[in-house]
Amino acid sequence: MTEELFCKWVDDCLTPEEQLVVDAAAKDDPSLLEEMASIRELNTQVKAEFPASIEPPYPDFFNTQVMNRIRDEEKKISAPVSSGKNPWWSKIGFGWVPASALAVVLAFFAGSRMNHFTDGPELAQKILPSVYTPEEKHGARVIADSQGDVAAIVMEGLDAIGDEVDFAEANASVALPERYLLSLQRNTP
Amino acid sequence: MIPSFHRFFGLALLCLGLAHAKDPGLEQIGSFGVQLIYATDGDVSAAGEQNKELDKGQIEELQNLKDLKFSHYRILGRDEKAILRGYENWATPLKPSKEILINFEPRQKIDENRYQMLLEYWQGGRKILTTDPILTKGKSLYLRGPKWRKGRLILEVKILELI
Question: Would you call A179 and B99 a contact, using CB atoms and an 8 Å cutoff?
Answer without folding.
Answer: no
